[in-house]
């Protein structure tokens, strides 16, 4: 209870003087003062006043009021006392005492009864004899008891001495108590009340010592400073605050707070550490060992965000952009930079990383909305709520080991509009759906992507420990080894079980894969469909042809999927297709071996009809067509042999039997590579050429280096897309690979007799990694942009080592799109600067016409000497097959004015 100020009335017979606002009685006989410059003098007497502007060197006596300057209060020889200091004491030495400091003290090494003024350096004692606190008294919040009884009520610039308390505004009773016990100082009650009304608490600029209880203000608690209990304010804590109580505030903590029940504005990055927080922290850039309170923004480290049910504490983090080792309580948002190692509490929105989402045994959800990355969603943990498609996984889960109700798709982004606050800008416009890399548990609804739905694993007792289960798949499952109840989406590879493939479902069904009922689409890679129902099942049709053969599939009705061709059937109804196999001119196919379900019939014109029934996967290898051989009459051998030297001297294209060697210069037919030649490859005038044979192909590098030809890694402006223009997510640097030189590139192509390539006709070459290209897409084809020396509007031929040649029109200067289908491994390409060869000639080549002319001359000479019989015999077979008539038509070799006739038919 506040004590009443005792008013003392003293009757004086002497004259009184005014000091400040205080009326002081003069001594009965004399009122002693010190005035003027006495800076070298020492006072040893009792003095009433050091007047204003006076300076005293040293005081070894008693001064009632100092209104001037006392340089040293107390000396090594004697004690000095100043009752009231209204002005300045330069040094209050160890032997000095100031009862009431209302002015300034430079250095205090002695004692001060009450400080309502200022002390520059405090090394002594303040208020310990005044009874403000007693040793053993409890701290205001009961967290300890006082060991030191000194109290500061005023301003200290540098505190180097331990304090029991740095007083606050609510400690005004101390002022009443002091003047109540020092009524002889003559202060009236109104004057004391005025002091109290103007009192705002004590301030320490720099604390280098221990303050047991701070109810006032410490601007800088230095590395040497300790505040046992802070109920006031600490602007910058570079030392230790053992306990920041409910009324305490620390603005910037650079070092250690053992326990915070109050407010901390910034726990800083360098060394800021809070052991236990049960209060409010605005910004944590440092570390918090245990948080039971509130952290608005964490960029530092919180080891445990905890709950203490007995004390009613529940830690909460409004926004985590740092690291939380263990969350057992509540985090509103873990942002893109946030990392939570173990979550057994609640995270409302995760856009960062949660390494382990563990079981939460409260009614709250572990992670309400995941837009970030969860490494392990462990057994019993939750992401989203049951029957709620506005929560769940909208991000990525690497290993899902717990039931997940909703794995969102790219069209589910609107579900979040009502769930997220307007100011949470966390959703990317490029959202393409949620991803689960490995599912070892149950996903009720999948609208996103599951890379692997895993097979069952057994525990030590032989019972199923985990198994990937998807109840409703509306998205994409790349590999299923587990169980899918209803598939309404896409399963890229099924080796597990699908109960029902619905009308919108698509499954690539591999060996060991089982589909109980199919009403959708299935591509058969060796799996089983139990009930084919009304669905469509496709079977692969692979026809590989050797050289000199074309396959006409234009009317086959085959479907292309993943780079292969398929024959479909609906339900159990068998369907059929026909493919026409044709040898090129002057070649024949002698036989074709076929598997069960396939018939091969040779037609009168030399083509073959391949008829295939659905129901099984078919693979047929057709060997290369062979050159049709004509057998000469034995009677003619002598003539041919006799004249072979002359013929060979005139033309290198005749053999020793006098027959033409046909230079097959045919173009590519139906996109299958046959034999072809490049005119520039035979250029013998190319200086500095490096010509060599690879697979019977002449390669002339000319003077170009591969570095000049190859420009794969230059930037391109056209996107990597499929044939429909949909972007394909792939790294072009992983898709396109260089090849050392043109010789190495040609090694990837099968032997091509007579093929000549020159670097002068090669623009660019390299290889395409099909695995990297189609890794993240379900498309069956792609257009790969390549940087090359090409012009828009011009068409270019591209050789592929899968026996394909394509002609592509350039759409943009400097870039060419190479169309490819799905597959595995690498596909080698060579882009040519000009077409390989002219079209197939409709008339006999010039060397064949020359041959017939020569043979006609022989016939003419023979007729003069041998008669008609010899001539008739000699002319049989003289003309080459391309010049021979058919079906009884006669052809003639003209010689001057006469003619020879060859009978045919």
Topology:
Layout: E1 17-19, E2 22-24, E3 33-34, E4 37-43, E5 46-50, E6 55-59, E7 62-66, E8 69-73, E9 80-85, E10 88-92, E11 96-101, E12 104-108, E13 111-115, E14 118-122, E15 125-126, E16 151-152, E17 155-159, E18 163-166, H1 173-181, H2 189-197, E19 203-207, E20 210-214, E21 217-221, E22 226-230, E23 233-237, E24 240-244, E25 249-253, E26 256-260, E27 263-267, E28 273-277, E29 280-284, E30 287-291, E31 294-298, E32 301-305, E33 307-308, E34 313-314, E35 316-320, E36 323-327, E37 330-334, E38 339-343, E39 346-350, E40 353-357, E41 367-370, E42 373-377, E43 392-393, E44 396-400, E45 404-407, E46 435-439, E47 442-446, E48 449-453, E49 457-458, E50 464-466, E51 469-473, E52 476-480, E53 483-487, E54 490-494, E55 497-501, E56 506-510, E57 514-518, E58 521-525, E59 528-531, E60 536-545, E61 549-552, E62 559-561, E63 564-570, E64 576-583, E65 587-588, E66 598-602, E67 608-613, E68 618-622, E69 626-627, H3 637-650, E70 691-694, E71 697-700, H4 706-709, H5 732-735, E72 736-737, H6 742-746, E73 756-758, E74 762-769, ...
Parallel strand pairs: 3-5, 4-6, 5-7, 6-8, 7-9, 8-10, 9-11, 10-12, 11-13, 12-14, 13-15, 14-17, 16-18, 17-19, 18-20, 19-21, 20-22, 21-23, 22-24, 23-25, 24-26, 25-27, 26-28, 27-29, 28-30, 29-31, 30-32, 31-35, 32-36, 35-37, 36-38, 37-39, 38-40, 39-41, 40-42, 41-43, 42-44, 44-46, 45-47, 46-48, ...
Antiparallel strand pairs: 1-2, 33-34, 49-50, 60-63, 61-64, 62-63, 64-67, 65-69, 66-67, 70-71, 72-74, 74-79, 75-78, 76-77, 76-79, 80-81
């Amino acid at each position: 209870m506040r004590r009443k100020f005792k008013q003392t009335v003293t009757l004086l017979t002497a004259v009184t003087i005014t000091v400040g606002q205080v009326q002081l009685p003069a001594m009965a006989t004399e009122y002693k003062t010190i005035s003027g410059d006495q800076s070298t003098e020492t006072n040893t007497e009792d003095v009433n006043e050091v007047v204003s502007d006076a300076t005293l060197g040293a005081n070894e006596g008693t001064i009632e009021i100092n209104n001037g300057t006392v340089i040293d209060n107390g000396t090594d020889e004697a004690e000095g006392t100043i009752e009231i200091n209204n002005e300045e004491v330069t040094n209050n030495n160890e032997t000095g005492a100031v009862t009431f400091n209302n002015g300034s003290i430079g250095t205090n090494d002695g004692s001060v009864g009450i400080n309502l003024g200022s002390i520059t350096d405090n090394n002594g004692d303040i208020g310990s004899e005044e009874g403000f606190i007693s040793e053993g008294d409890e701290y205001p919040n009961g967290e300890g008891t006082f060991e030191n009884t000194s109290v500061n009520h005023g301003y200290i610039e540098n505190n180097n001495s331990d304090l029991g308390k740095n007083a606050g505004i609510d400690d005004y009773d101390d002022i009443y108590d002091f003047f109540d016990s020092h009524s002889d100082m003559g202060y009236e009650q109104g004057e004391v009340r005025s002091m109290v009304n103007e009192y705002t608490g004590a301030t320490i600029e720099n604390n280098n010592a221990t303050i047991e209880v701070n109810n006032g203000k410490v601007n800088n608690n230095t590395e040497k400073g300790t505040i046992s209990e802070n109920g006031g304010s600490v602007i910058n804590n570079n030392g230790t605050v053992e306990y920041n109580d409910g009324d305490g505030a620390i603005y910037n903590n650079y070092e250690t707070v053992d326990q915070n029940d109050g407010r901390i504005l910034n726990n800083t990055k360098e060394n800021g550490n809070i052991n236990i927080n049960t209060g409010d922290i605005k910004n944590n850039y440092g570390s918090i060992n245990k948080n039971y309170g509130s952290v608005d923004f964490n960029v530092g480290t919180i080891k445990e965000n905890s709950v203490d049910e007995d004390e009613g504490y529940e830690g909460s983090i409004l926004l985590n952009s740092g690291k939380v080792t263990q969350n057992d309580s509540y985090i509103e948002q873990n942002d893109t930079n946030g990392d939570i190692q173990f979550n057994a509490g609640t995270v409302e929105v995760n856009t960062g990383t949660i390494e382990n989402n563990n079981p939460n045994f409260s009614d709250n959800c572990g992670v309400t909305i995941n837009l970030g990355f969860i490494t392990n969603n462990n057994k019993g943990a939750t992401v989203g709520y049951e029957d709620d498609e506005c929560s769940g996984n909208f991000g990525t889960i690497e290993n899902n080991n717990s039931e997940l109700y909703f794995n969102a798709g790219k069209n589910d982004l609107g579900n979040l509009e009502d769930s997220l606050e307007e100011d949470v800008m966390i959703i990317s416009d490029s959202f393409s759906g949620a991803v689960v890399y490995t599912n070892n548990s149950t996903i009720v609804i999948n609208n996103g992507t599951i890379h692997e739905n895993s097979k069952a694993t057994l525990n030590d007792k032989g019972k199923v420990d985990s198994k990937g289960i998807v109840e409703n798949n509306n998205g994409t499952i790349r590999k299923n080894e587990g169980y899918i109840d209803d598939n309404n989406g896409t399963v890229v590879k099924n080796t597990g079980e699908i109960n029902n493939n619905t009308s919108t479902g698509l499954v690539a069904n591999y060996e060991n894969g089982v589909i109980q009922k199919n009403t959708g689409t299935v591509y058969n890679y060796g799996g089983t469909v139990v009930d084919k129902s009304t669905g469509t099942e496709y079977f692969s049709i692979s026809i590989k042809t050797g050289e000199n053969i074309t396959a006409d599939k234009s009317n086959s009705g085959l479907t292309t999927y993943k780079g292969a061709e398929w024959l479909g059937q609906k339900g159990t109804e068998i369907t059929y297709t026909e493919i026409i196999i044709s040898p090129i001119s002057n070649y024949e196919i002698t036989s074709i071996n076929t598997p069960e379900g396939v018939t091969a019939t040779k037609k009168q014109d030399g083509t073959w009809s391949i008829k295939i029934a659905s129901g099984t996967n078919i693979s047929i290898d057709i060997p290369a067509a062979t050159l049709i051989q004509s057998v000469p009459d034995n009677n003619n051998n002598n003539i041919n042999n006799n004249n072979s030297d002359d013929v060979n001297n005139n033309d290198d294209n005749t053999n020793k039997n006098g027959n033409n060697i046909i230079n097959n210069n045919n173009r590519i037919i139906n996109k299958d590579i046959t034999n072809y030649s490049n005119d520039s490859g035979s250029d013998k005038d190319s200086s500095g050429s490096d010509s060599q044979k690879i697979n019977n192909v002449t390669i002339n590098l000319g003077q170009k280096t591969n570095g000049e030809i190859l420009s794969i890694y230059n930037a391109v402006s056209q996107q990597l897309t499929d044939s429909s223009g949909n972007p394909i997510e792939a790294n072009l640097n992983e898709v396109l690979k260089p090849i050392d030189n043109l010789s190495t590139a040609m090694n990837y192509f099968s032997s091509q007799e007579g093929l000549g390539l020159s670097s002068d006709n090669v623009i660019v070459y390299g290889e395409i990694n099909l695995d990297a290209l189609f890794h993240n897409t379900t498309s069956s084809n792609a257009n790969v942009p390549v940087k090359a020396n090409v012009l828009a509007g011009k068409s270019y031929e591209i050789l592929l080592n899968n026996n394909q040649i394509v002609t592509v029109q350039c759409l943009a200067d400097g870039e060419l799109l190479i169309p490819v289908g799905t597959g595995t491994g690498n596909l080698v390409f060579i882009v040519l600067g000009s077409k390989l060869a002219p079209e197939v000639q409709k008339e006999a080549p010039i060397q064949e016409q020359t041959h017939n002319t020569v043979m006609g001359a022989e016939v003419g000479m023979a007729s003069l000497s041998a008669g008609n019989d010899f001539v008739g015999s000699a002319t049989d077979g003289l003309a080459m097959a391309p010049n021979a008539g058919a079906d009884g038509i006669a052809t003639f070799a003209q010689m001057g004015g006469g003619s020879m006739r060859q009978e045919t038919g």
